[in-house]
């Protein structure tokens, strides 16, 4: 393998160039010997785990300028036998360290949960034969197979197969599975919902998209602005205390030794007593503890509002935020694909449009679009009156599904649903109907909807009738309007782009209306079916 192959842009290179750079034959895969060499070079396909002893982690919370000065004050109190001051100072130090240690443990648990979602096994092609191996043994250049229900074990470029529908919501926040074809990239940790393909591993371990995400979680320990201010104040007070202590000791030594020419243990203890008083008076011993307690109380209050706090310092950072960027799917919206009111083309009844679309769907596939169409039926039990024979699932080429159905009267017919342009072409609709469909789709797109079209054939597919359009959208959460009104009360300014103008998923402008007249768009419907 070329030395710099790992640094090349594997996501944008042609598949043939990727295979050449990784020096692998897509038909035979790597040999066991080559795989072993690469494993020793690249390391296992797992997130690096730095083992730190519990004692070392705990001791780390007693290190720092303020902590050292507090510990010095506690030590002086112990030497002088001032047990009251010693226990108070030491107790505050231990309490603050314990609270921070508890929060760190919670963050570590979150990272461990992230690691556990990696695929444990993979089907890999080596020496011309497929076998199941531990995912940790995968190396760049391995040819692997991904199939329905499996977790993608590493970042791969797909090299063969018809298509695969992959759910990568955990990584990218997409509301629907993404359809992949040859040449596309599948990310480690995503789930295959449909199809089966083969791909070449381009990145493993911490170099994958998933691994970089995990590294961000592990490194999410930046010091907050409040902590920086506290450290600056503490460091300034430490410098002042040390300077004053040195001046005081120098003066006292000069008076006792140079002028009086007397020196004894009592004099030394007296100087130490003054140093203790100066340290306790100059350094805010309780400042770290007060800060942690205040943040802990804030975390408790936020937990009652169903907010999860992984780091105490994040509360202060959130309070000082000027702009809050929120993910749409599942945050602003319900992440539940929903069917709107059907739009008939011609004389079709809205109920018949939904029924035809539901018959061209298959609930057992677990597809979000099929589930939304079937769920829109007033009574799903009506499907039991029909018998579905041959069913052609969606594929990225035809951009539609098709089913052969036998009705309650024994007559057979065909139904199909898919991208509006694909169904219009299937039905052989004239320019007038095609223009009407385009107009409806554009209007729906301006409101954030996406559209599917439905057609039916009663003569075995010789001719098709376009029945209508099914609008689909991801509705906003029920509490979104309440949150929007709550922003000013909490001292935040809520930006409402919909009051000025609205842009749909394709960037088309629409007239300004109320924010809540526009359902939030489900962009992946257009990617899958090509509508809008």
Backbone CA Rg: 33 Å
Summed over residues and divided by their number, the pLDDT gives a mean of 76
Give the low-confidence spans.
1-7, 494-532
Approximate shape: elongated
Number of helices: 19
Based on helices, strands and strand pairing, what is the structural class? alpha+beta
Helix content: 40-55%
Describe the sheet with the most strands.
Answer: 7 strands, antiparallel
Structure description:
With 532 residues, this protein is α+β, with helices and mostly antiparallel strands. Helices cover 44% and strands 17% of the residues. The chain contains 19 helices and 16 strands. The chain has helices spanning 15-22, 32-42, 54-60, 65-80, 83-116, 169-172, 209-218, 225-259, 265-282, 287-304, 313-319, 328-332, 350-359, 368-375, 420-427, 431-446, 480-489, 497-500, 523-529, and strands at 121-126, 129-134, 143-147, 155-167, 178-180, 185-186, 191-203, 338-339, 343-344, 387-392, 400-406, 412-418, 450-457, 465-473, 502-503, 509-510. The strands form 3 sheets. Strands 1, 2, 3, 4, 5, 6 and 7 form a 7-stranded antiparallel beta sheet that branches. Strands 8, 9, 10, 11, 12, 13 and 14 form a 7-stranded antiparallel beta sheet that branches. The chain has a two-stranded antiparallel ribbon with strand order 15-16. A hairpin with a 7-residue loop joins strand 10 and strand 11 (400-406). The longest helix has 35 residues, at 225-259. The protein is elongated. The model is unreliable at 1-7 and 494-532 (pLDDT under 50).
